Amino acid sequence: MDVNEIVQEILDRVLLPFGVVSHDTRHVKIDNIDGSDVPVNHDEYVVYRVLSNRPRGYGDGAQTLSRVYVDVNYYYTYEKTDARVKAVKSRLQAVKREILRDAHFRIANDITDTPDVDNPYRGLNVEFAYIGSVDNG
Fold first, then answer.
1. Nearest one of 129, 125, 100 to 115, comparing CA atoms
2. How many Cβ atoms are within 10 Å of 3's Cβ, its own excluded?
3. Could you give the 3-state DSSP secondary structure of residue 122?
């Protein structure tokens, strides 16, 4: 189980058709999307990160369960009153639906605004918990 790979695949599947790129832990600026004619949307991007991994051990102390928290931040340059923010919220809802289709994921903290900072981007945040068994094989 590689939670980063799972989340990246879902984000790419949902957001790349809109030109929105995503990356683990940092904003990556690109000029084009490999294998696609869709132009990059430079007004929006997503950064996600694994916040923690809390293994649980039982009996002999071997890890049997893993709980991983994943923080997803969707950034945009528009004013919060701009009509385009509705589409941003719709895309983040689509990401949320797709992630929750995987039975391992749950919502840890639902969608909220990120704090405004002194740059052109504003954002929305949602946090997921991935809960899965561990093969101690």
1. 125
2. 19
3. strand
Closest CA to 48 of 24, 83, 32, 66: 24
Residues whose CB falls within 8 Å of the CB of residue 24, separated by 6 or more in sequence, listed in order: 4, 7, 8, 47, 48, 49, 50
C-alpha 92/C-alpha 110 separation (Å) is 11
Give the tens place of pLDDT for each residue, 86-133: 999 999 999 999 999 999 999 999 999 998 876 888 999 999 999 887
Q: Edge-to-edge strands of the sheet including 122-133?
A: 21-24, 44-58, 62-76, 122-133, 105-113
Q: What is the DSSP string of 43-86?
A: TEEEEEEEEEEEEEEETTTEEEEEEEEEEEEEEE-S-TTSTHHH
CB 51 within 8 A of CB 103: no
| Under 8 Å between Cβ of 121 and 76 | yes
Classify the phi-psi angles of 124: left when phi > 0, otherwise alpha if psi is within -120 to 50, otherwise beta.
Answer: beta
**Alpha-carbon dihedral 128, 3, 122, 108, rounded to 10 degrees:** 10
